[in-house]
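The pair is quoted verbatim below.
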Amino acid sequence: MLRVIDTETCGLQGGVVEIASVDVIDGQIVNPMSDLVCPDRPISRQAMMVHRITEAMVADKPPIEAIISRYHGSPHYVAHNASFDRRMLPAMPGEWICTMTLARKLWPGIKYGNQALRHSLKLEVTPPADLHAHRALYDCYVTAALLIRIMEISGWSPAEMVSRTEPAALSGDIFPFGKYRGQSISAIARRDPGYLRWVLDNVRDLRPPLRQALRKYVKDDQ
């Protein structure tokens, strides 16, 4: 069993507002779960515009620490940009696989956002009709379909996918969100340095290592 996890948050620095999962067993997507979560900080306006989860929707919900054990129980957890979801959550007892990292290895030179891969790879998936992209359970279905395609194309075992995930998961040169999500910062700096300058000037809750990396590349461009 592989358990696909997705979170929605208050912003890039954390504060989980929703968690969801589906299991992939014998090439099938099963056992959907999802919970709204009361975060430990206000939801940023930018995040709310993406996932459309409001303060009122989570005000009476439990914190992530009270429900995370529901999502335990798999030897492997899978996420799209796994380093982000892994950082947002309390420690999970299992190894992590990143579908974004694996997609970059299998299909170089395309866009690596979840929805972009869904369309470019023509993934056959039916997320819940009452949800939309950037809700956690919806994104879990898309990531699970991507995972199934990756395994069909590559023949990689879970252990092989873990080993192929780790180097990129530790890399500081992968842009974690937006239109260039999953691409290297160095490549973005060569192609669209103005975008990196815009991010530095307008996105307030950047993680310090990411802000430092962006400043390096923006400085090099000047």
